[in-house]
Specification:
The complex is a heterodimer of chains A (507) and B (365).
Chain A (H helix, E strand, L loop, with lengths): L1 H12 L12 H8 L5 E7 L4 E7 L5 H14 L5 H7 L6 E3 L2 H9 L2 E5 L7 E5 L28 H9 L7 E8 L5 E8 L5 H12 L9 H8 L11 E3 L2 H10 L2 E5 L5 E4 L17 H30 L7 H11 L6 H21 L2 H21 L5 H14 L5 H39 L1 E2 L2 E2 L41 H13 L1
Antiparallel strand pairs in A: 1-2, 2-4, 3-5, 4-5, 6-7, 7-9, 8-10, 9-10, 11-12
Chain B lengths: L2 H5 L10 H10 L8 H7 L3 H26 L3 H43 L6 H17 L2 H20 L21 H10 L1 H4 L5 H4 L10 H25 L2 H6 L3 H6 L11 H7 L1 H23 L3 H18 L3 H39 L1
The chains are: A alpha+beta (507), B mainly alpha (365).
């Protein structure tokens, strides 16, 4: 399979860095393009001379060709490519005989002008038209207050959304092309003088080392450049909000944008950032901290509630006070299954509903909610397949898992619940504790761009706790997070930041 | 003798203040749950014995740092430097066996607790297999991760410690009176029994080369001993005011029994949760001794790391399958207490003197 892929790559796409390979000529390129219906190649004759024009008509703007290229060619006489180049009032024209360059330009929407059929020298004029979506409001990371712009699938628009928020020359952009066939443009953004140069090099090194044929989305990149590729925990955070990206750029993080993906990636990150919504910064600090803590509690609840239910009902029922035991017993009295089976069935139902809801078009999706919530829920309790207590717990756990602001992480949370369920059935609380220890070990060993993943917790850094479980007020945030080793660690002069505050008080 | 330090990369090293957690979490383990041994001879005065034991450990840590600062390496390297390849290697091997024995004692005692309180039918070998694989996962990830669990264990132990405030409702403070009712001899006897509980600092012999600025870590080591001693004294006092001495001698794992009286509207019988949570107190003990033994064997024999890991697992699993009844576990704990006592109070001072003598003789040449 791989061999075949390599071979086909050589013959069809001819994107090989092999120097020993036979020379690839312009005629071969034409021959390869000819069978495609949208490849246009014609002789353009004027009174005195003629030239040959070729382009992919699905990639170029026809209006532009007629108005800005052909009209100038008919009106003026020319004898060489150089003269044509002077005639046309367009920037970024290029005369070259490098076939690889020509191929790349044609395939990204340039017009090729030759003087004769087999002339290897040609003039390339960019005439690209890019179809793209309008910038819309964020749907995955919606916030009630704050900016309402989200990234789109076009790299240049995305960069524009970032640049207009950070008008400074130190915002550097490096571009790399990845993917042997797709040649996807990947932009790496960072602020020079804040971002740690070592981190920048790591990102660029890892991106250039990617060996794959096509890169469709930024989530490909997440999986390919993660430190630990087998971990269920994502080690790069993806966001669709340009404002969040700008905020992390000024913290000294490194942002990766992939052409064709409406999500930006950034690193290095720590696990607590997955539980902080960007809206936290739009609210006053104590409220933001409160909501963040609620979210963290929701995560714990989501992972541990059903395993605890199994553990208590299977092994530790002495733990329930007598009144509570009566409530649970009356609800579970006619359920014929052991708790673990009961839980697995309900978790499976919830997962089914979620999958079905995610795959179906939104109009049909509403039906799923009704079917799931009312029909399956109440009917299964009435039928004695599950207890109503468990139904509440499972529904709450599912709800809690959706409070995580980052979608990738909420998937992880729903996933890691299942091993806990199995271990709870095996050894009750002791089993949960063992698996929790293993999870912690995994998290302790994880790194994001070589920086510890659960950083403010271990290695313990008190200064970074100011924006972890709590979001402290802005005048306490004078320092950038230290785990990413920024080159300039001061966000603001902390003395002046607090001084202003005092002046207001004295008024 | 600086070859050890040069071998270690910067990102493998740990900050000096983390030594606090390494020592503190290693010192708190199983023995705090069973105060029968400690209170046997000094009775209600044995909290004084714990303080005496703690003070003596400060002295030992002082000696330990003098040995290590001079040696610039771990115990294996020091043995090799002082006694040569064969004798030194043999002594190092004994030390590794000692670590494995500590590891096994903690592991088997914890399984015993689970058997007694939660699952009487538990198969010891299978449970220890799972626990050791979990511990092995920590060990293979290196000392940084092991230090991480030590740190987190210290954090988790704070709420667990708070649960010992509940029994104070039923406290009979007169149990502690009269103070100093026992002879000095009895106090020392109890202090001797406290050794197994308060030991654990000797693992410094293995992780010393991994500390970033080892000399700066000494104050953290002493602080750790102070905190551990206070925690021990606190638990001992709670236990002594809750039980009277006659009762305490009759009850197995008296500290766990205290948990029984904790009640909330939505749950009671806290010991089920407490025993499960105790895994985070036990795990640093297992991981650190396991790591020390593993590291030592790698250094002496330079076998494949994963091979050694699995061999250790097999040996410990087999051993925990062999020990069946309560009396042999009691005997095991008594035995490792004795060995620890002789190692800590006997071998460490002797090594200190020998190191000084040998280096002086060599220097004289």
């Amino acid at each position: 399979m791989l061999k075949w892929l390599n071979q086909s790559k050589k013959t069809l796409f001819n994107k090989n860095n092999d120097d020993t390979e036979t020379e690839f000529k312009i005629d071969d390129l034409i021959k390869a393009l000819k069978p495609s219906k949208d490849f246009q190649r014609f002789e353009f004759k004027t009174e005195s001379t003629s030239c040959i024009i070729s382009y992919m008509n699905t990639l170029v703007n026809p209006e532009f060709i007629h108005r800005d290229v052909l009209s100038h060619l008919t009106e003026n006489a020319f004898t060489s490519l150089k003269e044509i180049e002077k005639l046309l009032p367009i920037e970024q024209k290029l005369i070259t005989d490098d076939v690889k360059e020509i191929q790349k330009k044609i395939m990204t929407g340039s017009i090729m002008i030759q003087f004769s059929e087999h002339d290897s020298n040609c003039l390339l004029i960019p005439a690209v038209t890019v179809e793209s979506r309008q910038v819309t409001i964020p749907e995955v990371e919606f916030s009630v207050v704050g900016p309402k712009e989200a990234f789109v699938e076009t790299l240049d628009i995305n960069i524009n959304l970032i640049r207009k928020r950070l008008p400074l020359p130190q915002l550097h952009l490096r571009e790399i092309e990845v993917g042997k066939i797709s040649n996807t443009r990947i932009a790496v953004l960072f602020i020079d003088g804040i971002a740690n140069q070592e981190n920048v090099n790591t990102v660029i090194q890892r991106l250039s080392d990617i060996e794959y044929d096509n890169i469709i989305d930024s989530s490909y990149i997440t999986q390919m450049i993660s430190d630990n590729k087998n971990s269920p925990f994502p080690q790069l955070l993806d966001t669709e909000r340009p404002d969040r990206v700008c905020a992390v750029l000024t913290e000294g993080k490194i942002v990766i944008l992939v052409d064709g993906s409406p999500h930006a990636l950034y690193a290095p990150i720590t696990i607590v950032e997955f539980f902080s919504a960007f809206e936290d910064y739009f609210l006053i600090w104590h409220m933001a901290s409160f909501f963040r803590l609620i979210r963290l509690f929701a995560v714990a609840f989501s992972v541990f509630s059903t395993p605890f239910y199994i553990a208590i009902l299977t092994y530790h029922f002495e733990m329930l006070p007598i009144n509570l035991l009566a409530t649970i017993y009356s609800s579970r009295g006619n359920v014929p299954f052991p708790p673990v089976l009961e839980v697995l069935i309900m978790e499976f139902v919830i997962e089914l509903l979620r999958e079905a809801g995610a795959r179906l078009p939104s109009k049909v999706g509403q039906t799923i909610g009704i079917v799931g919530g009312i029909v399956i829920g109440t009917a299964s309790v009435d039928a004695g397949l599950t207890s109503s207590v468990l139904l509440i717990i499972v529904a709450l756990a599912a709800l809690a898992s959706f409070t995580t602001p980052v979608y990738q992480m909420s998937n992880t949370i729903r996933f890691i619940r299942f091993p806990f369920i199995l271990f709870a059935h095996l050894w009750g609380f002791v089993g949960i504790a063992i698996l929790f220890a293993i999870t912690i070990c995994h998290l302790l060993g994880l790194t994001s761009l070589g920086r510890p993943f659960i950083e403010p917790i271990f290695p313990p850094r008190l200064t970074d706790l100011k924006d972890a479980f709590f979001r402290m007020p802005f005048n306490r945030q004078a320092k950038r997070p230290i785990y990413q080793r920024p080159e300039d660690s001061n966000r603001a002069n902390s003395a002046r930041l607090n001084q202003k505050h005092d002046k207001n008080k004295n008024k | 003798m600086r070859f050890m330090r040069n071998l270690l990369k910067e990102n493998l090293l740990i900050s000096p203040f983390l030594v606090f957690y390494l020592i503190h979490s290693m010192q708190t383990g199983i023995s705090v749950l069973d105060l029968r041994g400690i209170s046997k001879s000094a009775g209600h005065d044995s909290w004084i014995s714990i303080i005496i034991s703690g003070l003596s450990i400060h002295l030992l840590i002082f000696i330990l740092y003098r040995i290590l600062n001079k040696g610039q390496g771990d115990l294996i390297a020091i043995h090799k430097e002082l006694f040569g390849k064969w004798v030194g290697g043999f002594l190092s091997l004994l030390f590794i066996l000692y670590l494995l024995m500590l590891c096994f004692t903690v592991l088997r005692s914890y399984i015993e607790i689970i058997q007694l309180w939660v699952f009487p039918q538990l198969t010891p070998w299978f449970f220890s297999l799972v626990l050791l694989i979990a511990a092995g996962y920590f060990v293979i990830n290196g000392l940084r991760v092991v230090t991480g669990i030590c740190f987190l264990s210290t954090l988790y132990s704070i709420p667990i410690l708070l649960t010992f405030l509940f029994p104070l409702k039923f406290a009979h403070f007169s149990n502690l009176l009269p103070v100093m009712d026992h002879s000095f001899r009895e106090l020392i006897d109890s202090a001797r029994n406290a050794t197994l509980g308060l030991s654990g600092f000797e693992l410094l012999f293995m992780y010393y080369p991994f500390i970033k600025h080892p000399k700066k870590s000494e104050k953290w080591a002493h602080l750790a001993v102070i905190v551990t001693t206070l925690v021990y004294v606190f638990i001992a006092l709670v236990t002594f005011v809750f039980y009277n001495q006659g009762q305490l001698q009759e009850i197995l794992w008296g500290t766990i029994t205290i948990w029984k009286i904790i009640e909330f509207p939505f749950f009671e019988r806290f010991e089920h949760l407490g025993i499960a949570a105790w895994i985070f107190i036990v795990l640093p003990n297992i991981c650190l001794t396991y790591w020390g033994a593993h590291r030592g064997i790698v250094e002496i024999f330079s076998f494949n790391k994963k091979l050694i890991l699995s061999v250790i697992i097999i040996i410990l699993v087999a051993a925990s399958g062999l020990i069946e009844d309560r009396t042999s576990i009691e005997a095991l704990r008594r035995f490792s207490g004795e060995v620890t006592f002789f190692f800590v109070y006997g071998y460490i001072p002797i090594l200190f003197i020998l190191q000084r003598l040998i280096l002086k003789l060599r220097g004289g040449k």
